[in-house]
Design brief:
By secondary structure, the chain is α/β, with parallel strands linked by helices. It contains eleven helices and ten strands. The chain has a five-stranded mixed beta sheet, sandwiched between helices.
Length: 341
């Protein structure tokens, strides 16, 4: 007998996604319609444009997810949807679609925190031993969580300003590397010297803080480029990219190791779009291995926004019967909602 199926919907930013997951860990389909080519010309996501494209794509994506999973609406146990954090207009498309489906089908509705969905991507590919520490690093979030189970996460610390992925996008823009910035900077950095520029590392060396800050680092890069231009000097983009990337990775690795040590967690999870960064994966895995800890991270396709992770996170809420009402609304800011009880 097949385990209960959860349909997940994700529209928090610029990916329109739907997926069917069985039993909280078996992916039967994971359809992602990306808007990257649309937003590249603007150098970043334009919220109104993203929302309009979600409206155009969401029904098609849901239909494709069901077809690839070889199931119908009647086979679903529940509908899970990202209700925040994210872009409010984009979130509303997913939320309203999910509410309509839940009402029409008489199925439970599950409201999923986007950050916790990124964490749940690990449950689709790994057997996680708790307690664990999780670093979530993406375009909108940089957070450290302490987890005692799949559905209980406590916030240890987060960025005070720019997220790591946001800093990657902004630095890529000023270097003329294109959008999305993470992969562009990562590729450029391959040919650069990570010691060429001494960029700041906020909160580094502070053993009583799990907080991050990348705004000053971003400004330092911009100011360095401006000063070089004023002097008539031509910056080596690869060196700037490599030095910037190293500064970000150094802080992420340091704070994650600190959290794992303080919490005595043998397992560390990596999640979010920045988790696809090769340097971060390599250096974090090496340092944690030296500490006697294990790093787990999803494949790149599950690091960026997708609906399989939403369905996986929704499974735990479904099992606990933590259902949302049809008055569910998009919540663009969810700073205080970090745990499912």
């Amino acid at each position: 007998m097949r385990e209960p199926l959860i349909l997940g919907l994700e529209t928090s930013c610029d990916e329109t996604a739907a997926a069917v997951v069985a039993g909280g860990r078996t992916i039967l389909s994971n359809v992602i319609a990306t808007q990257v080519p649309i937003h590249q010309k603007y150098g970043g996501v334009v919220p109104e444009i993203a929302s309009r494209h979600h409206v155009e794509l969401v029904n098609e994506v849901v239909a494709q997810a069901l077809q690839e999973a070889n199931c119908t609406f009647a086979d679903l146990a529940a509908i899970a949807v990202t209700h925040g954090p994210g872009l409010v207009g984009a979130l509303l498309v997913g939320v309203n679609t999910a509410k309509t489906l839940a009402y029409a089908l008489g199925k439970p509705l599950v409201a999923v925190n986007h950050v916790l969905a990124h964490v749940a991507a690990n449950f689709l590919v790994h057997e996680v031993i708790f307690p664990a520490v999780c670093l979530v690093a993406s375009g909108g979030h940089t957070s450290l969580l302490y987890m005692t189970s799949r559905n209980h996460a406590t916030l240890l610390g987060a960025t005070r300003d720019d997220a790591a992925g946001e800093a990657f996008d902004k630095v890529a823009r000023v270097l003329g590397l294109g959008y999305p910035g993470g992969p562009a900077v990562d590729k450029a950095a391959e040919q650069g010297d990570p010691t060429a520029f001494d960029f700041p590392r906020a909160f580094s060396g502070q053993n009583d803080s799990f907080e991050f800050s990348f705004s000053g680092l971003k400004s330092s890069v911009i100011n360095t480029l401006h000063n070089m231009k004023q002097k008539g000097e031509e910056p080596n983009s690869a060196d700037v990219a490599a030095s910037f990337q190293q500064a970000v990775v150094d802080v992420l690795v340091e704070k994650t190791r600190l959290a794992a040590t303080v919490k005595d967690a043998k397992t560390v999870l990596l999640a979010g779009g920045v988790a696809a960064n090769r340097l971060l994966r390599q250096q974090l895995e090496t340092k944690l291995r030296d500490d006697g800890r294990q790093l787990l991270c999803p494949p790149p396709v599950l690091c960026t926004d997708n609906a399989a992770m939403v369905a996986a996170a929704g499974w735990d809420l479904y099992v606990d019967q933590k259902f949302a009402g049809l008055d569910l609304n998009a919540t663009p800011v969810l700073d205080t909602v970090w745990q499912s009880k």
